[in-house]
Every structure is written in structure tokens, then in C-alpha cells.
Amino acid sequence: MSDETTNGAAAPDEAAGTVFTIEKIYVKDVSFEVPGAPAIFNESVQPELQLNLNQRVQQLAESSFEVVLAVTLTCKAGDKTAYVAELQQAGVFGLAGLEPHVMDGLLGTQCPNILFPYVRQLLSDLIQAGGFPPFFLQPINFEGLYMDSVRQRAAQAAAGELSSTEPVGNV
What we know:
Helix content is 34%, strand content 36%. By secondary structure, the protein is α+β, with helices and mostly antiparallel strands. Helix 2 packs across helix 3.
């Protein structure tokens, strides 16, 4: 019954024309390397992990966007590389009828939050299939990362405005 309209009126989101949909989720690229196998499995040093995270957004059509969450995890055992796992988890999202700042926020926070569980699972599976102990990627605060990027863009815009203004002085 929740799908029915009341008195023939459309639901508020439909009336306003706002749309947020998940069109497709897929693995765009994946790589797992164990350059020192099989000797690396005999190393008994504490591994060091380095995680790099990157997000890209590409507009595909007027209301269609591809969001790619890219992760590179490098594990070193001493001075040797134990493994390198790289993956790009992507999704196509439909967004329409939203203010630009709201759309930017959804693309920067909600879309990566939707993709993250897929990244976590695939990364864990790759590492275990490579013969290493399980790795559990900790939660990432995409809202905080997004707010940092907004502040950084605002600072860059302000710096650009200051450098492009004419110096005050005698004419």
C-alpha cells in the first residue's frame, strides 16, 4: 500500500523531480601481485601496510554519473614487498532535480559509502586468496573527507581571487 499515491497526488520526491538511483555497481579494475613469492611466505617480520584511497567522479550524461573508488594497499615485510592489491570499484548513479551543492555532496559522500562494502569484501578476498592472513579495511569517514575537500576548494578559490585582484595603490 505504500506505493500508492494519496488522492492522486505524487509522492513529494516524485513531485519535485528529485532522483537518486543506483544504476550499476561493478569492478572496473583489479590487480593483486606477490612479487617475492614463494620466499616472502617465510618472512617473520611484522608487516607494514600503506593504504592509498582515491575517488573520481565523471559525468556520463545529464543525470548519470560514474563514481570510482580506487584503493591501493601495499604490504611490506621489512624491505621487501609482500603484496600489492589495487582495485577500482565503480558505480553508475542517477541524480537529477537536485541543487548543484546537494548533488556534489551526494557524489562525494553517499556514493562512496555505497561502494565501500564492495571494496572491503573484494580486498579481503584478494588478500586471503593470495595466501595471506585476512585484512579487514576499517570504516572510512567519507563525510569528513568530503568536508575537508570542500574547505580546501574554498581556500584555493579565495587564494585565486586574492591573487587575481589588482594591487591597491596609486593609479
